[in-house]
Amino acid sequence: MRRPSFLSQRPLLLLLLSPWPVWTQTPAAAAHWGTQGAPHCPEACACAPDGQANCSGRALLAVPAGLSRPVRALLLDHNRVRVLPPGAFVGAGALLRLDLRENGLRWVHARAFWGLGALQELDLGANQLETLVPGTFAPLRALRVLSLADNQLARLEPAALGALPLLGALSLQDNDLSALAPGLLAGLPALNTLGLRGNPWACGCALRPLCAWLRRHPRPAPEAETLLCVSPGRLTLSPLTAFSEAAFSHCGQPLAPRDLAVVYALGPVSFLASLAACMALGSVFTACRARRRRRAAAARLRPRRLPDPGRGPASPADPGSTENAAAQA
Ligand SMILES: *[C@@H]1O[C@H](CO)[C@@H](O)[C@H](O)[C@H]1NC(C)=O
């Protein structure tokens, strides 16, 4: 992919002006901008004048070091990068396209894509991803095309994708997805192409958001007509597009935020109320018992005092005897 004219003459200029020992490169290599081993190109890769760093198929175990701003496209496909650590692409802040297909990739750290605010295309296809942690794609505010095809994703949390305002195409085909979480498509307002085939879609209530999205986007993908759900038994092999909103009438409406707030508030409030009621009942009960005990004690004392021979007639100071006198009067 050689660029003609002035771009291919830049190495010549470099040759004349640069303090680097570029003249040690072969003339063929020097015909490309920042070629292998040059300051702007990772050592293991070949760089082209348009900013493409081609590191594909080089048995790399990690993202090569030495990425810098001139790199606009990074081809890392067909390597052995199993894990993407935090800040895996720092330095490549102007990256527009990143290809990570076929790496046996298993784990992407939540901050792996930090600093890639300009990235428009990300291909993570044909890897071994089973899960994606929340916030993984959050820094990629300019992302337009994302492929997660041919992985082992069984769930895809809305928090993993986050809100990607410009994402127009999302490939999810050939994974283990049986449903899409309710908030997932809501965070992707620009989405118009959605790859879905090759997943074990379950035709239950959980499929409602996806079916609603498919009805609103009549031609989201050429294969939409052939999308079938594989469970439950009764509905096996029904096309996804065949489900009208009426088919989900038995599912019940999802709760509105206000209702949810009431439900969430009701728990603690009723707990506190029952706690208060228990405490009130308990203190009433103990007060009653204490009073009954005091009375019983008083009743036990009284008959012993009455027949006391040494005391003579009850004194007027004795409240018990005053009562007796009043009763007799
Ligand atoms: C990248 O380099 C490999 C060989 O190293 C080559 O086969 C491939 O075509 C290159 N890709 C592009 C897009 O230039």
UniProtKB/TrEMBL annotation:
Residues 199-252 form the LRRCT domain. GO terms for cellular component: plasma membrane. It is a single-pass membrane protein; Single-pass type I membrane protein. The chain crosses the membrane at residues 261-285. The keyword Lipid metabolism does not apply. SUPFAM superfamilies: L domain-like (SSF52058). Its main location: membrane. Keywords: Cell membrane, Disulfide bond, Ion channel, Ion transport, Leucine-rich repeat, Membrane, Repeat, Signal, Transmembrane, Transmembrane helix, Transport. GO terms for biological process: axonogenesis; positive regulation of synapse assembly; potassium ion transmembrane transport. This is Leucine-rich repeat-containing protein 26. It comes from Vicugna pacos. The lineage of its organism: Eukaryota, Metazoa, Chordata, Craniata, Vertebrata. The gene is LRRC26.
